Amino acid sequence: MHFHILTLFPEMITQALNTSIIGRAVQRGCISIDAVNIRDYTADRHNKTDDYPYGGGAGMVMQAQPVYDAWKAVLQGAALPRPPRTVYLTPQAPVFTQDMAKELAQEEHLILLCGHYEGIDERVLEEIVTDYVSIGDYVLTGGELAAMVVTDAVARMVPGVLSNALSGSTESLEGNLLEYPQYSRPEEWNGKKVPSILLSGDHAKVDAWRREQSVLRTLQRRPDLLARADLTKQEREKYL
User: Fold this and answer.
1) HEC states along the chain?
2) For residue range 132-151, what is the model confidence (pLDDT) as tens digits?
3) Of the candidates 5, 23, 124, 9, which has an alpha carbon nearest to the alpha carbon of residue 74?
4) What does the pLDDT look like over 50-99, one tens digit per residue?
5) CB 91 within 8 A of CB 134
6) Given CB 3.0 to 4.6 Å as the disulfide criterion, which of 40, 54, 160, 186 pairs with 30?
C-alpha cells in the first residue's frame, strides 16, 4: 500500500514514520510513505502557500493552487489511471475509527492532506477530497499529527506489516470491545500475581476468561461501545 501525505512539513512525517513497526514495514516493502512538500508546488516566488481570507478574519488560509498541483503531481508520479481516495484531516469531520482504518487499508494508494493555519481554500477541497476525517474533537496546529495517526492505524491493517497475523484481529476495538488485560514474566511482581487461569494451559478456559475480561473492561472504561458490540445473547442479558 502506498501513502502519499501532502504537507508543509514533510520532515515531521519522515522522522516519525520511519521508525518502529511502520519503519520496518517500509524497509520490507509492505508499504511506502511519500511525504510531499506542498511548498514545492507554489507559483509564488517567495514560496508562500497561504494568504489572507476573503471576508476578513484572523489567520491565514492555504491557497488552492499549490495544494492542487501537489495532488496532481502524486497522480502523475504514480501513473494512476484515476484519482485515489483523498483524506483531508480536519476537526470538522466524523471521528476516525478502527472500522475506517480497515476500510482504508483496502486501497492501493491513499492521499492524506494536512491543513494548517485557518484551513484550506474550500474550492480545492471540493475538487480533490473524497473523505473528511477527524482524530478527535480538538484542534491541532496542523494536520501532520492526525495524518500520522491515520497512517499508523491503517498501515497496521495491511498484510505483512504486523509480524503476528493475529495481532490486528485480537486487539482493542475489535467487535467494539476493548482488549483484555495482558501479563508477562515474572509470575509475581510487586506483590501482584498473574491470574492463575493464564497459567493453567487450558486454552478454552483462557479464551473464555479473556472474553469476559474484554466485556468487563469495555463496560468499565467505554460503556458507550457495548450497545454496538458483538455480544452473545447471554452477554447482553448479563451486561446491558
Assistant:
1) CEEEEEECCHHHHHHHHCCHHHHHHHHHCCCEEEEEEHHHHCCCCCCCCEECCCCCCCCCEECHHHHHHHHHHHHHHCCCCCCCEEEEECCCCCECCHHHHHHHCCCCEEEEEECECCCECHHHHHHHCCEEEECCCCCCCECHHHHHHHHHHHHCCCCCCCCCCCHHHCCCCECCECCCCCCCCCCEECCEECCHHHHCCCHHHHHHHHHHHHHHHHHHHCHHHHCCCCCCHHHHHHHC
2) 999 999 999 999 999 999 99
3) 5
4) 999 999 998 999 999 999 999 999 999 999 989 999 999 999 999 999 99
5) yes
6) 160
**C-alpha cell belonging to residue 66:** 499549490
